[in-house]
Amino acid sequence: MTPLAYLQQRLGTPPCEDALAEYQQWWETTGRALSETIDRWGTPTLRQHDRHGARVDEIILPAGYITLVQEGYRHGVVWRVIEEEDWAGSFTLGYLTAYYDAGLYCPHTVSLSTAVPLAKYGSPVLRERYLPQMARRDGAAWQGATWMTEVGGGSDLGAHVQTVAVPDGDAYRLRGAKYFCSNVNAELAVVAARPQGAPGGVRGLALFLVPRFLEDGSLNYTIRRIKDKIGTRAVVTGEVDFHESVAYLLGSAEVGVYLILETLNISRVANSVGSAALIQRALDEATAFAQRRIVFGKPLSEQPLMRTQLHRWRDTLDGAFALAWESARLLAEVWAQTPPYSPRYHLFRLLTHLAKYWTAEQAAQAAKWCMEVHGGAGVLAEYGVERLLREAMVLPIWEGGSHRQMLDALEAMQRRGAHTLLLEHLAPHADPGEVHEWRTRIDAYLQQPAEAQEAELETLIPPLAAWVARTLSQRGARQV
Fold first, then answer.
1. Which residues, including other chains, have CB under 8 Å from residue 158's CB and lie 6 or more apart?
2. Phi, psi at residue 139, to the nearest 5°?
3. Across-strand partners of 246?
4. Structural contact between residues 72 and 252, judged by C-beta atoms closer than 8 angstroms
5. Which residues of the chain have pLDDT under 70?
6. Which of 363, 365, 364, 459 is nearest to 410 (CA)?
7. Which of 126, 158, 418, 425 is positioned for an S-S bond with 122, CB 3.0–4.6 A?
8. Vertex 271, ends 190 and 333: CA angle to 5°?
9. Closest CA to 468 of 352, 345, 360
């Protein structure tokens, strides 16, 4: 089944259906071959100096990469949200991208997660200067990046963000470094930093917009190196040093941590959508192979155990998509809210943590299973199946690992009562007895000491996420 056919099955008439059909056709005729070539032979390199010794930090990209990444921008993965508030169109385009190249959806995602806070919190001058560049459709759209993590790690930003922002007129100057910079070749980045004199901890952080180049064309920061990774070769990841780099505050420093989390939550929704797409790709690859592989006198797909597994993964795909799509639908509803948020926003937060956790874990397992279906051929690079596992491994880690999503989901239940909102949200479509059982179970769980709640969290979040996914799948997906 093509990704567009699956979207039509789940959504009826998907948003921007004509654009999706055109985009899918481009992938089949052009993009798939480019993607495979870049994944196998297209390692980017960093040229730090020109022949005269001047620092240039030029990233040399493989042939065809610009064409590959820009096609998604041309069809609207960013501009549909910025110009039309069409989140559904953006995420369905992202689904197609991730089906064919899960790593490539990362540049598109972080570009969207840069453009949205810029549009929402940037000054009129910043919006006028940069948003039209990010919304271009001519193959030269500016890209964005979201850089929060420093060498100490990303889960505890309050403890590990050492980058300092020093006021300088209408702007700031950044001093510090970022350790895990996805899409390091982007023209713009949103960066977590601590304004000079701000308190320690996560409450003292703020969100800044940092251009790659100054107005005179000189470098605004330097790239230390490009990282060698297990997968996601379609996104260039590096380390960045800020030396009095010009930065612009987005929104208010007093609520900076909330803006940082807003940015991360956009990417978490996209991660969920991309995870569902990877599950479909793994299922499609496994099904096609099993139908032609003859074992013990008949196709592998007709063997009882394999037939059961194929059905189970189809159900898993439907649940993953429904969970991801519901988080996308709620994001479209609440994205314009600012602190303090409404209860509806906290429902979105809980659902997003569940979706990011569960879909990513299922994607990694689906990729592993797909390799097993192919047997020895599954581990050979020439057949491309092993790539699915390489791409899937980052999904449970990116934008907060699975443990972080479980902890944040718990916090939303403890402090905001978001589980009550979730059960009320699902009640019209769920079995009343199951809703009652979950209400009783969660209420009892939250009566435990805090340390016990955290220690035993794996007994709560995985089954809760699976139940929510199943309930939403049985209800049927709704368009954003």
1. 200, 201, 202, 203, 204, 205
2. 85, 10
3. 173
4. no
5. 476-480
6. 459
7. 126
8. 80
9. 352
pLDDT of residue 231: 78
Tokens 């790709």 correspond to what residue?
A: 281
Tokens of 121: 């919190």
- Token duo for residue 294: 């003859």
Does domain 257-475 match CATH 3.40.605.10? no
What are 207's two structure tokens? 């969100």
Q: Does 146-253 carry CATH code 2.40.110.20?
A: yes
Amino acid occupying residue 148: M
Q: 3-state SS of the chain?
A: CCHHHHHHHHHCCCCCHHHHHHHHHHHHHHHHHHHHHHHHHCCCEEEEECCCCCEEEEEECCCCHHHHHHHHHHHCCCHHHHHHCCHHHHHHHHHHHHHHCHHHHHHHHHHHHHHHHHHHHCCHHHHHHHHHHHCCCCCCCCCCCEECCECCECCCHHHHCCCEEEEECCEEEEEEEEEEEECCCCCEEEEEEEECCCCCCHHHCEEEEEECECCCCCECCEEEEECCCCCCCCCCEEEEEEEEEEEEECCCHHHHHHHHHHHHHHHHHHHHHHHHHHHHHHHHHHHHHHHHCEECCEEHHHCHHHHHHHHHHHHHHHHHHHHHHHHHHHHHHHCCCCCCCCHHHHHHHHHHHHHHHHHHHHHHHHHHHHHHHCHHHHHCHHHCHHHHHHHHCCCCCCCCCHHHHHHHHHHHHHHHCHHHHHHHHHHHHCCHHHHHHHHHHHHHHCCCCHHHHHHCHHHCHHHHHHHHHHHHHHHCCCCC
Task: Check if the beta carbon of residue 420 is closer than 8 Å to that of residue 472.
Answer: no
0.70 exceeded by pTM: yes
Nearest residue to 149 (alpha-carbon basis) of 352, 393, 400, 396:
400
Tokens coding 104 = 């490539």
Domain boundaries, the chain: 3-134, 146-253, 257-475
**d(C-alpha 405, C-alpha 358), whole Å:** 9
CA 278-283-288 angle, 5° bins = 130
Q: What is the pLDDT of residue 318?
A: 98
Dihedral over Cα of 195, 216, 183, 272: its sign: positive
Tokens of 109: 């995602």
Answer whether 3-134 and 146-253 agree in fold.
Answer: no
Classify residue 367 as exposed, middle or buried by CB count within 10 Å of its CB (0-12, 13-18, 19+). buried
Cα–Cα distance for residue pair 33/402, rounded to 1 Å? 32
> Could you tell me the fold of the domain covering 3-134?
Butyryl-Coa Dehydrogenase, subunit A; domain 1 (1.10.540)
